[in-house]
Amino acid sequence: MPSPSDTDPLTFGAFDYCIFIGLLSIHALLGIYHALRRDRYKTAREFLLENRSINPIPVALSVLVSTMTSITYLGVPAETYIYGPTFWLMALNKPLVALIVARTFVPIFYRLKVTTIYEYLELRFGKLMSICGATLNFLFILLCTGILVYAPALALTTVTGIKLSYSVAFVGVTCSFYTTLGGAKAVMWTNVFQTMIMLTAFTSTLTVGAVMVGGIDAIRDVMNTHKIRLSNFSPNPTVRISFWSCFIGGTFIGLSAVA
């Protein structure tokens, strides 16, 4: 198998551009469709909750895809390539996180009819705590969004050759367009569409990758030869990744993201 240095960089061809433009067009059309179909929002609650009229299955798919960012798509493959596949253990805490959120947080928020955690903080601890929480989260989102936009923009620059600054602006404007235009329903249905795209892409990548290296048996042989471990149950806290750090630490990370 040729090394990366022996191969030409992968760039978009005509077919790739057609697929890419088609996907962006679907996102934009979903935003326009929901903007034209709905009545004008009168309150922030209507914009965020759509008067609680949304089907729970699309909402669940939207929440699922919202927890996976460009950092996930680009970072996890690099993590796996360099350090091995042990990081998959992070997925084991997801059912526990969902159970805790569904049984503990959601009933309280639903009963109080709050749209954000900051409303709850104000009801429970006062206005000052709500302002502090909102300010800290704003700073976090401000810093995090820069990375989240930069990562796909860098990937886009790599495969298209356009300037990075143009790529950053393109990603930001595209996402802002359908989000602000269509409201919560547009975001939800674009996320559902992205879920289908991601599942198709993940399945295709795994299938093609397995075929290219010679099938499941070849993968197993490589893992045995290089002593690649799928799990690590060591209780040593200094181990880089273990079942315990992924399950316990990952649970708190998951709760901070969706609770």
Automatic annotation (TrEMBL):
<keyword id="KW-0472">Membrane</keyword>
<keyword id="KW-1133">Transmembrane helix</keyword>
<feature type="transmembrane region" description="Helical">
    <location>
        <begin position="12"/>
        <end position="36"/>
    </location>
</feature>
<feature type="transmembrane region" description="Helical">
    <location>
        <begin position="88"/>
        <end position="110"/>
    </location>
</feature>
<protein>
    <submittedName>
        <fullName>Sodium-coupled monocarboxylate transporter 1</fullName>
    </submittedName>
</protein>
<dbReference type="InterPro" id="IPR038377">
    <property type="entry name" value="Na/Glc_symporter_sf"/>
</dbReference>
<comment type="similarity">
    <text>Belongs to the sodium:solute symporter (SSF) (TC 2.A.21) family.</text>
</comment>
<feature type="transmembrane region" description="Helical">
    <location>
        <begin position="57"/>
        <end position="76"/>
    </location>
</feature>
<dbReference type="InterPro" id="IPR051163">
    <property type="entry name" value="Sodium:Solute_Symporter_SSF"/>
</dbReference>
<keyword id="KW-0813">Transport</keyword>
<dbReference type="InterPro" id="IPR001734">
    <property type="entry name" value="Na/solute_symporter"/>
</dbReference>
<feature type="transmembrane region" description="Helical">
    <location>
        <begin position="239"/>
        <end position="258"/>
    </location>
</feature>
<feature type="transmembrane region" description="Helical">
    <location>
        <begin position="131"/>
        <end position="152"/>
    </location>
</feature>
<dbReference type="GO" id="GO:0006814">
    <property type="term" value="P:sodium ion transport"/>
</dbReference>
<keyword id="KW-0739">Sodium transport</keyword>
<dbReference type="Pfam" id="PF00474">
    <property type="entry name" value="SSF"/>
</dbReference>
<keyword id="KW-0812">Transmembrane</keyword>
<keyword id="KW-0406">Ion transport</keyword>
<keyword id="KW-0915">Sodium</keyword>
<keyword id="KW-1003">Cell membrane</keyword>
<dbReference type="GO" id="GO:0015293">
    <property type="term" value="F:symporter activity"/>
</dbReference>
<feature type="transmembrane region" description="Helical">
    <location>
        <begin position="196"/>
        <end position="219"/>
    </location>
</feature>
<feature type="transmembrane region" description="Helical">
    <location>
        <begin position="164"/>
        <end position="184"/>
    </location>
</feature>
<dbReference type="GO" id="GO:0005886">
    <property type="term" value="C:plasma membrane"/>
</dbReference>
